[in-house]
Amino acid sequence: MKIREVAIKKIIYGSTGAFVVLAFALLLSFTFFAGRILESSLSDGADKLRERLGADMAVVPKGSEDSYQGIILSGEPVECSMDRSIENNLKGMDGVEKVTPVIYLASLNASCCSVPIQIIGYDPETDFVTSPWISDEYTTGEADGDMVVGYNIALDVEGTLTFFGRTYTVKARLNKTGTAMDKSVYVTFDVMDILLADAREKGVEFGEGSSEGLSDRYVSAFLIRTEEGADPDLIAGRILRYGNVGVVQSKNMISSVTGGIGFISKIIRIITISVIAIVVLVTAILSMFRAQTRRKEWAVLRMMGASQSWILRLILTENLLVSFAGAIFGILLAALVIFPFSRFIAEQIELPYYGPGGLKVVLIALAALAVTLVAGAIPAIFAGTKAAGTDCYVLMRDGEN
Amino acid sequence: MKNKLTAAVIVILGLLVAIGPKTIFPVCPAGEMKMRCFTTANAELAVGIIGAVIGIALFVIKDKKLGIMLSAAEAVIGLFVVLIPAVIIGVCGNAMMHCVTVTRPALIVIGIILVIVSLINILLFLRDISIEKKTR
Amino acid sequence: MAIESGNLVKQYTRRNRTFRAVDDVSISIPEGKIVVVSGSSGSGKSTLLNILSGMIRPDEGNVLIEGKDLAGLSVRERDMLRGKKIGIVPQVQSLIGGLTVRENIVLQGTFSGKKSESSSDDVRIYAELLGIEELLDVFPNSLSGGEMKRVAVARAITGDHEYIFADEPTGELDPENAGKIMDVLRSQADSGKGVLLITHDELVESRADILYSMAGGKVTPVMTNTGDVGDSHPPLPLKSQNDLLKGEHL
Question: Which residues of B touch A331 (CB under 8 A)?
Fold first, then answer.
């Protein structure tokens, strides 16, 4: 009989403690796979975020700095307004290359199902942040339409959206970004004027005065690109002197995101290494114990002519088969949990989250498999060596030797 | 012994399916419109209870062939748990609704685990039958 | 060809006292004969069997299996030689759980280099001879002690070795089955195998071609009646066999 045949029969019908080894292998591969997928998704999300932030800083109404970060990261809809008049001052500042105004509006109700959606208005003449994404990242498109929607936005049956009682056509849908952009809707200022007028009728506060040409006078924020080599902190300081405004620098937002990611990555790594250590330890203890209690079996095999390496290979095969099965189950289970829940996880941790593509998933799965097999093989080698060295005295009745 | 363990797991999963969509990972609250996710929750309540009852039966029975048939039935239940929110009835269209981000994935995951545990149960019963054949 | 040994010594230390389980023993197991070493428990018989099969190394003396000195072989070579040449029936229950009786028997073939095609026929034949053919697809844990012993004998025989060693071959067996085993062992010897039996059963002693008595580690040859049907050699005086091994003596 081949070693593999014997190993399989022993695993199924014998009492090899295979179940426990399998459970621990499952735990290890689950932890490793889930951990790596999480880490990869977070770091890819951060990269996408970096791409998204075309601007170096944003000028917002004083007190709205935290809400602005929310737009990018968590997607909590934001509304704020400030006088547009400082726009020219900003444009004329040293070190400022481009300035473009944006308007943020939160919808009350978007057609079906009650979740407010972020509407972002941009000025097509000066915009340098949103347009690149819209022009490069079309996925579907009609020639004309009022709105560009983020990846996760669901449309009405006719392919329209209704805000504040009025229906708008949808021009295109953005590719997935893994940020709150996926939950937002983008319009030009003229469409935004219509929305603002309707919104104000429903009681939303934005700016003062008549709704006619509102966006000429009031915006929510200015997005600024600084010149190459200019000192952003210096510029930010100058802007703050205007009073009544706040400045959010992209580099700070990114670093807070990477800080958060770094923290979570560290935790994932600590957990993974702990699990590896525990699994190896427990498997080792169990394997050594079983090697000891099965010593009569080893003695019989030696008596029949099995070499020490044969016995070692048998134990190794038993462990590897079981570890392999456990690894596969663990990976499948982890995939079951992570992939369907990825959107939920992204919302909960409030960090950009961009799941890995098929190839990367396969590589991570293979890595999880390899780690689990090695973790199973090491204790098996120790236990197998011990088993192979069993004395034949075990075969003699007590009292004879 | 292993069969009792799997049977207990099946009961727990069945209960989760039954009450989960109403409590732990709830669907959208019933507004003016009766949304699809509400219907899904009700369907899962029924399916989950049936699943839990089969699980209790699996815990109690001794006949192995019967166990295999019940486990197969449970696997079908698990399939329904997955298909109801995914295909048959569905949930809300808006990708940001709770029923989409939490409830549907939860049901899909639980359903798949239910199918897997049921299949494992069948394997365990087959092994027991095989051992019985080889025992005098 | 034979298994030969000279001046074997094996001593143990127990409770600060040293005693010799095997004390200057030289016996040989020739092909085609049933050699029986008889003695009560504790006389060192099992230790002697283990030394002759290469499972234990003696403190002094040497063992030659068909001319090969075991002392010159590595552990691996000894294991493989034993697997090929000697089928062993130990005193204690020795079947492997999780494998059926048939699988236990066939497993021996893995180490004796037996081809699997001829295996299944032989398994059936020997199983019928030993009355265990109904048990072939059963797990060992549902067998009685006597049945397990018969399976162990079948295993040792099916391996098609040149020698068969058995420690208490008739242990736990009723007279009828004990007789069956001795018949099978007899026919094995008649077909040219060397058989070594360790026992304190008189039935076994009575079927010996060559009989030794062992006590306190020492072996004494006993003259046996080997006039069974089919035996064409007159019994050799055992003393001269030993002298041949000792060489320089005489």
Answer: none
Per-residue H/E/C for chain A? CCHHHHHHHHHHHCCCCHHHHHHHHHHHHHHHHHHHHHHHHHHHHHHHHHHHCCCCEEEEECCCHHHHHHHHHCCCCCCCCEEHHHHHHHHHCCCEEEEEEEEEEECCCCCCCCCCCEEEEECCCCCCCHHHHHHHCEEEECCCCCEEECCCCCCCCCCEEEECCEEEEEEEEECCCCCHHHHEEEEEHHHHHHHHHHHHHCCCCCCCCCCCCHHHHEECEEEEEECCCCCHHHHHHHHHCCCCEEEEEHHHHHHHHHHHHHHHHHHHHHHHHHHHHHHHHHHHHHHHHHHHHCHHHHHHHHHHCCCHHHHHHHHHHHHHHHHHHHHHHHHHHHHHHHCCCHHHHHHHHCCCCCCCCHHHHHHHHHHHHHHHHHHHHHHHHHHHHHHHCCCHHHHCCCCCC
* Of A19, A154, A337, Cβ closest to residue B93: A154
Q: What is the mean pLDDT of residues C7-25?
A: 88
CATH number of the domain encompassing residue C57: 3.40.50.300
Please indicate if any CB of chain A lies within 8 Å of the CB of B9. no
What residue spans define the domains of chain A?
3-48+257-395, 63-243
**Per-residue pLDDT of chain B in tens (136 residues, 90 and over written 9):** 788 889 999 999 999 999 988 888 888 776 655 677 888 888 999 999 999 999 999 999 989 999 999 999 999 999 999 999 888 888 776 666 777 778 888 898 899 999 999 999 999 999 999 888 888 7
Smallest CA–CA distance, residue B54 to chain A, in Å, is 23
Distance, in Å, from the CA atom of B21 to the CA atom of C145, rounded to the nearest integer, reads: 59
The pair of structure tokens assigned to C121 is 């026929």
Confidence class for position A74, pLDDT limits 50, 70, 90: low
**B117 residue type, one letter:** V
Nearest CA in chain C to A304: C83
Domain count, chain C: 1
Q: Which domain holds residue C101?
A: 2-246
User: What's the whole-model pTM score?
Assistant: 0.77
Of A2, A303, A308, the CB nearest to C90: A303
Mutate which of C91, C94, C141 to test chain A, going by most A C-beta atoms within 10 A?
Answer: C94
The length of chain C in residues reads: 250
For chain B, give every domain's residue range.
2-123
Q: Residue-wise over B4-27: b if at least 16 C-beta within 10 A, else e?
A: eebbebbbebbebbbbbbeeebbb
User: CB distance A10–C76 less than 8 Å?
Assistant: no
Cβ separation B135–C139 shorter than 8 A: yes
Distance (Å) from the C-alpha of residue A180 to the closest C-alpha of chain C? 58
Q: Where are the beta strands (DSSP E) in B36-106?
A: none
Tell me the pLDDT band of C119, cut-offs 50, 70 and 90: low
State yes or no: ipTM above 0.90: no
Q: What's the Cα-to-Cα distance from A45 to each of A31, A34, A250, C189, rounded to whole Å?
A: 21, 16, 15, 79
